[in-house]
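Design job #97: recover the sequence.
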């Protein structure tokens, strides 16, 4: 299989990010609330104790209503933190209503690096992952940094379920797949659940 040209991926990324940013504040709020409702009724999430997710940037679906629901259900929530020594890798740290967040070098808020709050991937039940676009086979296009591609590389071995979170407008017919891309077994949008496994 030939590698997709970076241009294809870049063009799709630009187009979908533009669509996502064009949503009004009201559309964003409704989407976030609808997604939170769906997500808590999704069996793997309903049964999970340890859930990793992300804080939204750049028009991504707002995860805060979902985080609030997970906290209400007494679930442990974790956010990604840029690994201090292994460039391009993520660590996941516990996030509570009292956690003080500070922006990292990508300007994404993250919890302080405290080893006592760290969870290893094999202890996670579900990881909700950001994406720029996804297609009908579960192929995911991220922001291009490869952080989640590396994190998801051996998800089956670690035993957690990765689930993409996206606006409905982020679904495209088909994405050019690269060798390092890890397809997702499921994606949740405000209107539906996509499952491939």
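Job complete. Output follows.
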């Amino acid at each position: 299989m030939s590698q997709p040209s970076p241009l294809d991926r870049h063009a799709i990324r630009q187009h979908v990010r533009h669509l996502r940013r064009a949503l009004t504040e009201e559309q964003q709020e409704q989407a976030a609330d609808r997604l939170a409702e769906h997500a808590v009724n999704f069996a793997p999430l309903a049964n999970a104790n340890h859930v990793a997710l992300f804080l939204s940037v750049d028009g991504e679906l707002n995860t805060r209503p979902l985080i609030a629901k997970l906290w209400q259900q007494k679930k442990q929530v974790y956010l990604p933190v840029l690994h201090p020594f292994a460039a391009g890798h993520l660590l996941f740290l516990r996030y509570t209503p009292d956690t003080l967040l500070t922006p990292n070098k990508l300007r994404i808020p993250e919890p302080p690096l405290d080893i006592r709050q760290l969870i290893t991937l094999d202890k996670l039940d579900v990881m909700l992952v950001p994406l720029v676009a996804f297609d009908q086979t579960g192929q995911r296009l991220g922001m291009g940094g490869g952080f989640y591609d590396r994190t998801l590389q051996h998800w089956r071995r670690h035993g957690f379920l990765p689930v993409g979170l996206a606006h409905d407008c982020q679904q495209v017919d088909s994405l050019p797949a690269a060798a390092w891309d890890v397809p997702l077994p499921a994606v949740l949008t405000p209107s539906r659940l996509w499952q491939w496994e």
